[in-house]
Amino acid sequence: MQYSNLVSDLETALAARSADAAGMLNQITELFLQHVGHYSADQLDIYDEVLNELVARVETAARIKLAQCLAPVDCAPSKTARSLALDDTIEVAAPILS
Questions:
Q1: How far is CA 46 from the centre of its chain?
Q2: What is the distance between the alpha carbons of residues 90 and 42, in angstroms, rounded to a whole number?
Q3: Spatial contact of 28 and 70, defined as CB atoms under 8 Å apart
Q4: What CA–CA distance (Å, rounded) separates 5 from 68?
């Protein structure tokens, strides 16, 4: 995959500054939502990998906010949406499952 370096770089940045994961998640989500519906399959895959990596590192409140943002989006990144839908916390899963 051509974006594996991007994901690797993200992992490195998060390891060094894990406290910034929620902020990064928020910024990337906002960027994604600005042009939703206009991404190629490859671009969606990149967003999906990055968002999914961040979801695994953030607190429940950040996952709830992301789920609420992505729930109404028909073309939400699939792995991320699945991860949120399967979250053990119902407040995270409910918006995606509704």
A1: 10
A2: 30
A3: no
A4: 29
Q: Which H or E element spans position 78? A: helix 78-85
Which residues, at least 6 apart from 26, have a Cβ–Cβ distance to it below 8 Å?
62, 65
Which secondary-structure segment (H or E) carries 86? none
Contacts of 19 (CB under 8 A, 6+ apart): none
- Cα gap 94→80, rounded to integer Å: 14
Q: How far is Cα 95 from Cα 84, in angstroms, rounded to an integer?
A: 9
For residue 1, pLDDT beyond 60: no
Residues 9-48: pLDDT tens digits?
A: 677 766 765 567 888 898 899 999 999 999 999 999 999 9
CB 5 within 8 A of CB 36: no
Whole-structure pTM value: 0.84
